[in-house]
Amino acid sequence: ELEAIKARVREMEREDERLKELQLEAESHLIMSSKAAFVSAGLFPKTTEEKMEVDQRSIYVGNVDYGGTAEELESHFNSCGQINRVTILCDKFSGHPKGYAYIEFKEKSSVKAAVELDESVFRGRVVKVLPKRTNMPGISTTDRGGYRGRFRARGGLAQRGGYYGGQHPRVRGRTYRGRAKLLPWYFPY
Asked: Domain range holding 75?
């Protein structure tokens, strides 16, 4: 009777191994087919060249009314050519629109026609229409140069074991150094 139970346990373990292999095979097949579907639909550009090609068919629309919808933008720019996608960017915390959008056309020639709609009125606001620029990795438009490390002239963490935020304790009397007007009269900590 003990041998029969051991044989049954071994059989169940083999069946478990086969089920795991089948599950892995099915998952890999599902992942590959979904990735291929995204790539073929143009929703998942793989290379930088493909991204640049999509950006060349896209425009930036600024000063968009916060109540504007993708359908309204599509109807406003429909005369320029066939539209693949309208993206209205929203704040990730509040979910409210940021006031600009990107429109991707089917053909590159539609971008020139859309740029001619620059300074046109959309929902009572004058919109700014520009060809979409391609972001290059490592290049920032907000980078002001200079050393962005620990040692700065003012603010931040003081270099010589000072207080957090660059604030120094008030000295007895009225001798002040730095930003004395910002310091409160009483330091509880």
From this structure: 48-131
